[in-house]
Amino acid sequence: MSLPCVDLRSDTVTRPTEAMRRAMCEAEVGDDVLQEDPTASCLEARAAELLGKEAALFVPSGTFGNQLALFTWCRRGQEVVLSDSSHIVQHEAGAASVIAGVHLRAFSPIRGYPCWADIDPRLRRARDIHFPETGCVALENALSNGEVLPQDVLTEITSGVRREGVPLHLDGARIFNAALHLGVEASAIASAVDSVMFCLSKGLCAPVGSMLVGPRDFVRAARWKRKIMGGGMRQVGVLAAAGLVALSSMRARLGEDHEKAAALAQAFEATGAVEVQPRPTKINMFFVRFKAPHLRGREEDLVSELAHRGVRTYPPDEGWVRFVTHHDVSSEALSETCRVVRETVQRLAG
Ligand SMILES: *Cc1c(COP(=O)(O)O)cnc(C)c1O
Known about the structure:
Blueprint: E1 6-7, H1 18-26, H2 38-51, E2 55-59, H3 62-73, E3 79-83, H4 87-90, H5 95-98, E4 103-107, H6 116-119, E5 134-140, H7 151-163, E6 168-171, H8 175-182, H9 186-190, E7 195-199, E8 210-214, H10 216-228, H11 237-249, H12 254-270, E9 274-277, E10 285-290, H13 299-308, E11 311-312, E12 321-324, H14 331-349
């Protein structure tokens, strides 16, 4: 008997828990475009409170939330300063050019994450007819590469960006993972930025949805623009109910996902044949590739061999294979995965 497939492609593959399904079933609902859905309003109030911001808005996805933030902060033709490896640049289908009509001023961070020295020279200070205006700066925490932005690096960016009067948006898809790693409340991260998007549908296991959080006026404007984007949803309390369960009972267990990622990364490292990034792991996500130059390129085989043995992940991206742990990976599945990893890597590395 083979074990059921262990899906390590992403924490987005998590399914809603029993408690979520019950809450969805029993949710009190109304027409949320008329702001009459009590469950959606409750989720928005709770999200704002958790992040220490004035208001919040439920949106269909993380991509929607990020794009809505750019659309709300910026005018067409303005520029957004951000890392070239960020989700907005790499994984949002070029939406910023379509929706907000902005120009992305993407930089390669000097270190593994952006710092003020990356951003400072890219803010447009001169009023020159040749230059676009800076519309906002966008950061991520946790980052798409599995890193976490240290709080002192973030606050240095914050003071610099605030001095210039430019809004600062945070793609906090996994903000609770970042907060857990840093040992701070998510509100301590959020207080350093103007707006935050975070996902309910990743490690927190809700089936659908993200939140866009920020100042009251910003959220009021975003509610209007969400309607423009076709994101005004009616009895959305059915989904918000799962989001409320995600916030109340799924944050505290994220540490288990971090521990599982660390254990799996350890199994990879113990083979001696692959390198792991970041090291040590920070959240529930890490990347591997073969160490030996003659094995580079064999990461494709690693992915297909693992899939053959019931361990799924995405094909390598620029030579690196990503693994993401989550709620639906049981301890038994994890130990089995560690065993499969050891055998597969050793066989490929010969
Ligand atoms: C997943 C993710 C998003 C977008 O979320 P979707 O709900 O998949 O659109 C944005 N930013 C980061 C860093 C993410 O990991």
